[in-house]
Amino acid sequence: MNKGKGFLNEFKKFIMRGNVIDMAVGVIVGGAFTSIVTSLNQDILTPILGIFGGTDFSNLMVKLGSGDAAPVLTYGNFITAVINFLITAFVIFCLVKAINTVSDKFSHKEEPAAAPTTKTCPYCKSEIAVDATRCPHCTSQLEA
């Protein structure tokens, strides 16, 4: 019985981790976003493309065989799905690019620290050049 409680506690800890919840939110928002882009394509872009090309992709099909039971390839729906994908990918690319641009503007990038040009002489404690082999103040021989 104790093993079952350990499993349930481990599962609860897994579910409550932030990245799992973030992923769930992302999937839900992604689904809603997909329906928006699909509507944009079907309700706005496809009719506009139909004006210029004279073709409504959703009506494109090929009947394989004869008779009412013959299978039908609705390749127009596939073209619409590809267009939906390309539009979705383009919009997401633009959003990520805009977010990265804003993030770069507001992030404080620290300049890398310049390599030191001086060091302290271990004998007289004077400041000397970092590549010095002899201290100019006390003339002590320095280790390399």
Walkthrough of the structure:
This protein has 144 residues and is mainly alpha-helical. It folds into two domains: 2-106, Orthogonal Bundle (Non-ribosomal Peptide Synthetase Peptidyl Carrier Protein, Chain A); 114-144, no CATH class. The chain is 58% helix and 7% strand. The chain is built from three helices and four strands. It has a two-stranded antiparallel sheet. The longest helix is centred in the first third of the chain and has 36 residues, at 18-53. The model has no long low-confidence stretch (mean pLDDT 81).
Short summary of the structure?
This protein has 144 residues and is mostly helical.
Kindly report the CATH topology of the largest domain. Answer: Non-ribosomal Peptide Synthetase Peptidyl Carrier Protein, Chain A
Structural class by helix and strand composition: mainly alpha
Helix fraction by DSSP (H/I, runs of at least 4): 55-70%
Low-confidence stretches: none
Number of helices in the DSSP assignment? 3
Using only CA atoms, what is the Rg?
33 Å
Oligomer: single chain
Largest sheet: 2 strands, antiparallel
> What is the molecular shape?
elongated
Instruction: Give the H and E element order.
Output: HHEEHEE
Number of strands: 4
CATH class category name of the largest domain:
Mainly Alpha
Strand residues, percent: 5-15%
User: What's the CATH architecture name of the largest domain?
Assistant: Orthogonal Bundle
Mean pLDDT: 81
